[in-house]
């Protein structure tokens, strides 16, 4: 029997961010491995016109939860959605709900965050710092609390190249930042943002670093641990390979590549692509919850959930495998044939952006206009390039994360726990993982049926023919223009034509000669 699974039986667990990518997989695994847990409280806000109940219903009825319903048929009764907005004071939780949370919770998993790279500093501080501070305050009033697990990111200190499992100080105290957000107006905040974030690329990584300092400073006597995942990707094994439900990290770029929008991207091909499957992060997180509650380490332990130092894969290998997979299993209605490459300097990046991104978009929009439709490709391309510009930092740098605590934890697990809560990335086969990831993007994000593959292949063939036709026409037009304007081009043209003519005449004459000789010999 798994010790970890047994530990969570009968526990009341509070999860923030349970409707997010990581939160859903965390909830699924907890229910599947510990079906006798008492309750999972989730802090949810109404969104996109859906009530809390509708959101929970949608999650429970998704493919991700199919296996859970087999092992835990009363899962609906064990999820307790609590209306909450982490941007509000006391999270806008009702008194009764707050009372229940405070008196019953045993374990807290704090996953909620804004992961947008372009978030306004005020918004990012509110969710990634102030809400963390408030949640810790709440946790300190929970008499039954055994562990508080905070999900951060391995990139919170991406301004360093070697990152240890420690909390690094921030030049400006988080409390001062929180206070200043209350009285500074938006324009001033925008002005000081570059100075505050310093050599970090965005407000996300900066506020996640502040969030960690808050955890360290405000945890008091709580048993606290921090998990720092790198770039979280689709599931590796559980509940099934390739599950993914948002565009973050590489998922959006896999779509853009497979649909033929993305043809080049500035990257350091040999830099480590530090991807980590979401189920690996979740297994580690659950194990950390158990270890923190049972072993009560004296200090706050940080756990890196990264792959680079134990089982590295670089962007080049990843890109090749993405391309190989979309060739084998193409996406439907591609804009162009998938054929992307890495560029390594600004000049070639600009060149390929012009030739491979903007030019086809402009031509396609022209075609849409001609056929009476609304042009949209240039807009879409510009948004894609904006997104890429925000991700570029992460594919052009390399980091080294030490994983001593994570390895220590792995060695503390029983063989059964190592199997059920496997977070040993050394066992990951990258080629297989990426293939399943691309397939998962097709099935679960694009909602494309595998039965449509022959049609998608047919469409790619058509695109290839259009491509050849277009290139030939372009060549002929340019050549015709050159011939009309330049004597040299005319001379070259006549030289080539007369050379071809002579070659064909010689070939004809020699084959006629051979035929005649053959006739003479037989006759
Ligand atoms: C020789 C052979 C070689 C072969 C070579 C082959 C080469 C080719 C192979 C290629 C594959 C392999 C390489 C993979 C590289 C992966 C790099 C990953 C780095 C990730 C690092 C993460 C590190 C930190 C991890 C963490 O710790 S945190 C988690 C990470 N956090 C995020 O990833 C949030 C990012 N996103 C945003 O920050 C917002 O999205 C925002 C962008 C501001 C837009 O924002 P906005 O424009 O306001 O609006 P949206 O609604 O958001 O989106 C607006 C529009 O963009 C679309 N779109 C949103 N996203 C993405 C996305 N990703 N990718 C693409 N599109 C996206 C959305 O579909 C919408 O399209 P539309 O509907 O307009 O058509
Ligand atoms: N994805 C990645 O690549 C990585 C993620 N991480 C960390 O993992 C954690 C989870 O990330 P991930 O699941 O990918 O992110 P998602 O964006 O998928 O999920 C974010 C979650 O936070 C919730 N949330 C946001 N704002 C509020 C609010 N005001 N009130 C209540 N809930 C709110 C969202 O709720 P709603 O559904 O209502 O929007 C959602 O459930 C984050 O802490 C992130 O920093 C770390 C490294 C990499």
Summarize the structure.
The protein contains 20 helices and 13 strands. The protein has 523 residues and is α/β, with parallel strands linked by helices. It has a 7-stranded parallel sheet with strand order 3-2-1-4-5-7-11, with helices on both faces.
Instruction: Give the CA-based shape.
Output: elongated
Main beta sheet strand tally, sense and closure: 7 strands, parallel
**How would you write the strand order of the largest sheet?**
3-2-1-4-5-7-11
Mean pLDDT, to the nearest integer, reads: 94
Q: What is the count of helical runs? A: 20
Structural class assignment: alpha/beta
How helix-rich are the residues, as a percent range? Answer: 55-70%
Description:
- By secondary structure, the chain is of the alpha/beta class.
- Helices cover 55% and strands 10% of the residues.
- It has 20 helices and 13 strands.
- Strand 1 (12-16), helix 2 and strand 2 form a beta-alpha-beta unit.
- The longest helix has 36 residues, at 487-522.
- The chain starts with a helix and ends with a helix.
- The relative contact order is 0.10.
- The site of Hexacosanoyl-CoA has 33 residues, from helix 11, helix 13, strand 12 and helix 15.
């Amino acid at each position: 029997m798994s010790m970890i699974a047994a530990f969570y039986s009968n526990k009341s667990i509070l999860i923030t961010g349970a409707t997010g990518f990581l939160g859903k997989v965390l909830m699924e695994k907890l229910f599947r491995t510990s079906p006798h847990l008492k309750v999972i409280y989730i802090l949810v806000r109404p969104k996109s016109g859906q009530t809390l109940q509708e959101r929970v219903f949608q999650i429970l009825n998704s493919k991700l939860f199919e296996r859970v319903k087999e092992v835990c048929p009363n899962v609906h009764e064990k999820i307790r959605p609590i209306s909450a907005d982490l941007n509000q004071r006391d999270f806008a939780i009702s008194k009764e709900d707050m009372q229940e949370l405070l008196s019953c919770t045993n374990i807290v998993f704090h996953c909620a965050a804004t992961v947008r790279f372009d978030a306004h500093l005020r918004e990012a501080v509110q969710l990634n710092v102030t809400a963390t501070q408030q949640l810790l305050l709440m946790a300190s009033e929970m008499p039954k609390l055994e562990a508080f697990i905070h999900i951060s990111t391995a990139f919170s200190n991406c301004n360093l190249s070697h990152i240890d499992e420690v909390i690094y100080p921030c030049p400006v105290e988080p409390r001062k930042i929180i206070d200043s957000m209350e009285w500074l107006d938006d324009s001033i905040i925008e002005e000081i943002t570059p100075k505050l974030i310093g050599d970090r690329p965005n407000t996300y990584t900066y506020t996640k670093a502040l969030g960690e300092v808050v955890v360290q400073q405000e945890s008091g006597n709580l048993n606290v641990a921090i998990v720092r995942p790198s770039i979280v990707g689709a599931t590796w094994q559980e509940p099934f390979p390739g599950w993914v439900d948002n565009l973050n990290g590489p998922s959006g770029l896999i779509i853009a590549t497979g649909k033929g929008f993305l043809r080049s991207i500035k990257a350091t091909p040999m830099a480590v692509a530090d991807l980590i499957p979401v189920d690996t992060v979740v297994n580690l997180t659950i194990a950390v919850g158990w270890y923190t509650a049972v072993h009560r380490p004296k200090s706050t332990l940080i756990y890196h959930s990264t792959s680079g130092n134990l089982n590295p894969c670089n962007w080049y290998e990843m890109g090749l495998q993405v391309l190989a997979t979309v060739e084998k299993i193409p996406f439907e209605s591609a804009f162009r044939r998938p054929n992307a490459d890495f560029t390594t300097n600004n000049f070639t990046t600009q060149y390929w952006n012009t030739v491979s991104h903007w030019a086809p978009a402009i031509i396609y929009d022209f075609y849409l206009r001609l056929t009476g439709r609304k042009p949209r490709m240039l807009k879409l391309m510009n948004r894609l390039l904006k997104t890429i510009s925000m991700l570029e930092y992460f594919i052009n740098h390399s980091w080294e994360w030490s994983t001593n605590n994570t390895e220590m934890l792995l060695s503390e697990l029983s063989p059964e726990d190592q199997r059920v809560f496997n977070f040993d990335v050394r066992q990951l086969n990258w080629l297989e993982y990426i293939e399943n990831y691309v397939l998962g993007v097709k099935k679960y994000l694009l909602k494309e049926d595998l039965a449509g593959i022959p049609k998608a292949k047919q469409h790619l063939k058509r695109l290839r023919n259009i491509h050849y036709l277009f290139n030939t026409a372009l060549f002929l037009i340019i050549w015709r223009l050159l011939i009309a304007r330049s004597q040299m081009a005319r001379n070259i043209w006549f030289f080539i034509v007369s050379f071809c003519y002579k070659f064909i005449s010689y070939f004809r004459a020699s084959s006629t000669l051979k035929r005649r000789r053959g006739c003479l010999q037989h006759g």
